[in-house]
């Protein structure tokens, strides 16, 4: 099984459930297996949020992009995470697109075993 797929399934089943109380659908994989979408039907971060007309360009939950990107960097994966759909902006769901840019080789400290 693809390492990225395995990580995304764990992030979905454990991370989203533990920290947000929701699960997401992992869909829209590209042919290379390096890009996919998380689709959230519900997002507790926006339960009591309404964006004023002057802030319609704002992605209120952009922090989730950084959290996913940072978590994947901790396991040596350089990614790009962008919002595709956002219910606060009138879309029908919340969709985050994750693209693997490169797998960073792990660096071990010099003479760590001594």
From TrEMBL:
Any one of the GO BP annotations = Golgi vesicle transport
Keyword terms of this UniProt record: Endoplasmic reticulum, ER-Golgi transport, Golgi apparatus, Signal, Transport
Q: Any keyword Endoplasmic reticulum? A: yes
According to the UniProt entry, where is the signal peptide?
Answer: 1-24
> Can you say where in the cell this protein is located?
Endoplasmic reticulum; Golgi apparatus, cis-Golgi network
An example Gene Ontology cellular component term from the record? TRAPP complex
Q: What SUPFAM superfamilies does the annotation carry?
A: Ligand-binding domain in the NO signalling and Golgi transport
Identify the InterPro entries for this entry.
Bet3 (IPR016721), NO_sig/Golgi_transp_ligand-bd (IPR024096), TRAPP_component (IPR007194)
Provide an example Pfam family for this protein: TRAPP
Is Transcription regulation among this UniProt entry's keywords? no
Family membership noted in the UniProt record: Belongs to the TRAPP small subunits family. BET3 subfamily.
Record protein name field: Trafficking protein particle complex subunit
**What phylogenetic lineage does the species belong to?**
Eukaryota, Viridiplantae, Streptophyta, Embryophyta, Tracheophyta
């Amino acid at each position: 099984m693809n390492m990225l797929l395995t990580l995304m399934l764990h992030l979905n089943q454990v991370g989203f459930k533990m920290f947000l109380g929701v699960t997401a659908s992992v869909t829209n994989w590209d042919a290379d297996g390096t890009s996919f979408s998380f689709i959230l039907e519900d997002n507790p971060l926006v339960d009591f949020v309404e964006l004023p007309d002057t802030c319609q360009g704002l992605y209120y939950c952009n922090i989730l992009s950084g959290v996913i990107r940072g978590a994947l960097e901790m396991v040596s994966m350089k990614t790009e995470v962008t919002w595709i759909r956002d219910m606060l902006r009138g879309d029908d769901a919340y969709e985050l697109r994750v693209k693997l840019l490169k797998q960073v080789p792990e660096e071990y400290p010099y003479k760590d075993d001594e």
